[in-house]
Design brief:
This protein has 21 helices and 20 strands. By secondary structure, the protein is of the alpha+beta class. Helix 1 crosses helix 9, helix 4 runs parallel beside helix 7 and helix 20 packs across helix 21. The protein starts with 21 loop residues before the first strand and ends with a helix. Bound molecules: glutamine. The site of glutamine has 11 residues, from loops.
């Protein structure tokens, strides 16, 4: 295909090889696909305009920028000399008049300082240092009389309030920044990624201005072809007379094409064809997005179906089995915005009669925006008015939620915004409240005498005496390690006073709680059966008193008191049975 003509009105551009052809597509998470001359340098030209517009918004604020440049498409050519009647504002920042006005808004004391800021800004988008193509800059400077005329016209209408020439000069410089299709692909992907370069992870523009940049690209980026472009290709885009085009599908990807021959409107002929083909081939039209599909609720369960890792006494377990339905856990997932969060809120409100404690788990949530925060705030407000408790877990990676709640809740923040690291802790907290309500006069689980040990259930006082003589009392400080993973197993522990927790290490820094035991419970019991080395670590949560039986003594019971040993083994089987059932229940819920 040999349609189109390489631009010649800037003489330097005429040197481009019309056969150069490069394509680059970069996803919003930073994977780049490129083909052809994607590393061939060329000048950015008008593709600089939306990026500079973004910097002007950051430098001057939206209101001031809008007082100088409008947002209305013109349907005119890029270099048209048209201003809005009355205000004298250029109609939009994508035509040259608007772009020169925008450039004049870039902060900086001197020309070189302002250029440096522009280059730094482009560099953040591209993820590498960019420089001017001096030859093209000189060439445009020598021939850019029409743009200088536009500058003077802007001065006449007080859109520029000082000598227009330095601003026009800076505009020529921004147009001669040297890029490749790969660079432009990354820059487009940065816009698709909310302003953060997906490869370097660095922010190129404040997220709040990205939509403004994309809006003017959408309505005005392709000049007098903008309407047809949006109708058929359907992505915010920008072209430049050197032959580059970028297109952005917000949240998903950026596309860049380089091919110098232009059509009559100054847009790359092949650039348009490639974008058109990609849009069709990959279904990229902005107004034809598939629905997110997956529900924001990944899993729901109640405190009756699944318990925290604190091991409860049989009567406490019974209470949780009976009343745990008041605790409801919603595991959320994906991107939480208005529509996805609305579905969560709708479900919570529909079940509000059953819920006394609501745990919202954000572990699998990828992003959350302000409108989602607002809905969660409304839920929290409504539920607390109804005397319900809401707990948030795994929300540390979403600082916006905390900030939002802080502002909205004011002095009620510490009381109402309960944020815990793990579901396990949140569940335990809620369970404690349910148990307290159900069993107000239960035995204090913090201490137990041997007669109350779970493994000595149904023992006669004489049997208790026999077995007690084999126990050796031991105490531990809070946080002391009682058992280490890998230790040889030669003892069985009965907890007389205090609490201990079982942990396995997940990686070198974090560990996961498997269980917490309190007075009367047995631990280290698995080794009695299989004699394998300890599989987990056991740490004292409080000051702890234990009664310890050596496995040697346990073994000898078989010949000295076989009846006691049988009872002990029966109780041990029951205890393992209960623990196994708990694990099975957990697996079933998570299936
Ligand atoms: N520097 C060029 C000009 O002002 C940019 C035009 C363009 O790329 N459409 O003429």
């Amino acid at each position: 295909m040999a349609e189109g003509k390489v631009a010649t009105y800037i003489p330097g551009l005429a040197k481009a090889n019309p056969d150069w052809f490069g394509i680059c597509l970069v996803t919003a998470n930073g994977t780049a696909y490129e083909v052809g001359d994607s590393r061939q340098p060329f000048t950015i030209q008008s593709i600089s305009k939306p990026f500079v517009y973004g910097l002007a918004l950051e430098d001057q604020g939206r209101q001031h920028v809008l007082s100088k440049v409008g947002t209305e498409p013109t349907g005119d050519a890029f270099n048209s000399i048209s201003l809005e009647p009355g205000t004298g504002r250029p109609r939009n920042p994508m035509i040259n008049a608007g772009a020169i006005a925008t450039t004049s808004l870039i902060a900086g004391k001197t020309g070189p300082a302002r250029l440096r800021r522009l280059l730094e800004m482009f560099g953040r988008y591209a993820g590498r240092d960019l420089a001017l193509d001096d030859e093209i800059y000189q060439s445009e400077n020598e021939t850019g009389h029409r743009n200088r005329a536009i500058g003077h016209m802007l001065r006449n209408f007080d859109i520029l309030t000082t000598d227009p020439i330095p601003s026009v000069d800076l505009y020529f410089q921004q147009c001669s920044v040297s890029v490749t299709a790969y660079d432009l692909g990354v820059m487009a992907a940065t816009l698709a990624n909310g302003g953060t370069n997906p490869i370097t992870g660095k922010q190129a523009i404040r997220g709040e201005y990205v939509e403004s940049v994309l809006s003017v690209m959408g309505s005005c980026g392709m000049y007098d072809y903008a309407g047809e472009w949006m109708y058929t290709i359907g992505m915010p885009a920008k072209s430049g007379v050197a032959g580059g085009i970028i297109a952005v599908l917000p949240g998903q990807l950026g596309i860049a094409v380089y091919s110098p021959p232009l059509d009559a409107r100054g847009n790359s002929v092949r650039g348009i064809r490639v974008c058109d083909a990609l849009s069709r081939h990959c279904d990229l039209h902005l107004l034809n997005r598939p629905s997110p599909g997956e529900s924001a609720i990944r899993l729901k369960f109640t405190g009756a179906e699944l318990n925290s890792n604190r091991i409860r006494t049989p009567e406490e377990s019974q209470a949780l089995h009976h009343d745990g339905g008041q605790i409801q856990v919603y595991q959320l997932q994906g991107n939480l915005h208005f529509a996805s969060t609305e579905a969560v809120v709708h479900d919570v409100i529909a079940n509000v009669d059953q819920i006394r404690h609501l745990i919202l788990d954000f572990k699998k949530v990828l992003t959350l925006n302000e409108s989602a925060c607002r809905l969660f705030y409304e839920v929290l407000n409504k539920l607390s008015r109804l005397d319900r408790v809401v707990l948030f877990t795994h929300a540390e990676h979403l600082p916006l939620l905390r900030r939002y709640m802080k502002v909205k809740l004011g002095e009620r923040y510490t009381e109402l915004f309960r944020s815990l690291q793990e579901n396990d802790l949140a569940l335990e907290w809620c369970e404690n409240r349910v148990i307290e309500a159900a069993l107000p006069s239960r035995r204090d689980a913090r201490s137990a005498t041997p007669a109350q040990y779970e493994l000595f259930e149904n023992f006669t006082p004489a049997e208790i005496d026999v077995i007690s003589s084999l126990l050796q009392r031991r105490t531990y400080q809070q946080s002391e390690t009682i058992i280490n993973a890998g230790d040889e197993a030669n003892e069985l522990f009965f907890l007389a006073r205090g609490g201990v927790s079982v942990f396995v290490s997940v990686d070198s820094v974090s560990r996961k709680r498997l269980a917490t035991f309190t007075g009367g419970m047995v631990f280290g019991e698995m080794a009695v059966i299989d004699r394998a080395p300890r599989s987990a670590m056991i740490v004292a949560d409080t000051e702890v008193t234990c009664d310890v039986m050596s496995l040697g003594d346990f073994d000898r019971l078989g010949s000295t008191h076989p009846g006691i040993k049988i009872k002990l083994l029966e109780n041990l089987s029951l205890c393992l049975c209960r623990r196994l059932r708990t694990v099975n229940r957990k697996l079933a819920v998570f299936d």
